[in-house]
Write a structure and sequence with these properties.
Largest sheet: 4 strands, mixed
Strand order of the largest sheet: 2-1-3-4
Number of helices: 8
CATH class of the largest domain: Mainly Alpha
Strand content: 5-15%
Bound molecules: glutathione
Order of helices and strands: EHEHEEHHHHHH
CATH topology of the largest domain: Glutathione S-transferase Yfyf (Class Pi), Chain A, domain 2
Mean pLDDT: 97
Structural class: alpha+beta
Radius of gyration: 17 Å
Low-confidence stretches: none
Helix content: 40-55%
Distance between the termini: 24 Å
């Protein structure tokens, strides 16, 4: 297996899941800052021109954060990364979708890349403020949901990996203060050796 990633991107969450699983894998850098997602050979390999992407042992490429995370969880049941049973599974997907589709794509993307949302430079601060508001509202909602738990769904799962990279962005890139339950969750995640290894490998430790 090979993970296509860029340091400090959302691929960090998949990276730390691979570390949790502990099976051999390769890392391939696609430097987003240098626009490598738009250059060959990556643009042909993944026409979506995004990371993460997972090249599997049969040569097929899997994209989209949730799909990759569920694939890794299902193919590595010993790692117990997905809650058992239909209810546990749909609650994990429910949280993941909210974190990725809303907090990441609608919130952080506005904050980090306002120019993608308006052709007018003067409008960019307002776009970023909308992004911050979406993140703040989303974090408040998730904070209430996970209060009193070490991990988002009780036991550690793929949802924690998604929540972690968002918390990491909030603290290290956006200078935001996490609400209390997310701050506790972030501390639990930072204490996990797999998280520390992934951060170190991306030069973020
Ligand atoms: N829907 C995709 C989104 C992935 C995504 O937006 N990745 C960002 C990095 S966090 C990216 O590759 N951006 C490159 C670009 O937009 O040019 C997923 O869930 O995997």
């Amino acid at each position: 297996m090979k993970l296509y990633y860029s340091p400090n991107s959302c691929a960090l969450g998949i990276h730390l899941l691979l570390e949790e699983i502990g099976r051999p894998y390769e890392l391939e850098l696609v430097n987003l800052r240098q626009g490598e997602q738009h250059k060959q050979p990556y643009a042909s390999l993944n026409p979506k021109r995004k990371v993460p992407a997972l090249l599997r042992d049969d040569g097929s490429l899997l994209t989209e954060w949730q799909a990759i995370a569920v694939y890794l969880a299902r193919t590595n049941p010993d790692a117990a990364l997905l809650p058992a049973g239909l209810e546990g599974e749909v609650r994990a997907l429910e949280l993941l979708d909210y974190l990725i589709a809303t907090v990441h794509m609608r919130g952080f993307t506005r904050l980090f890349r306002p120019g993608a949302f308006t052709p007018t430079t003067a409008d960019e601060p307002a776009v970023q403020q909308t992004g911050r508001d979406i993140i703040t509202d989303g974090f408040k909602l998730v904070d209430a949901q996970i209060a009193g738990k070490d991990y988002a769904l009780g036991a550690y799962s793929i949802a924690d990996a998604a929540l972690f990279f968002l918390e990491y962005w909030a603290v290290s890139r956006a200078g935001m203060t996490l609400p209390p339950a997310l701050a506790a969750h972030y501390a639990h995640m930072l204490a996990r050796p797999a998280v520390q290894r992934a951060l170190a490998a991306e030069g973020l430790a």
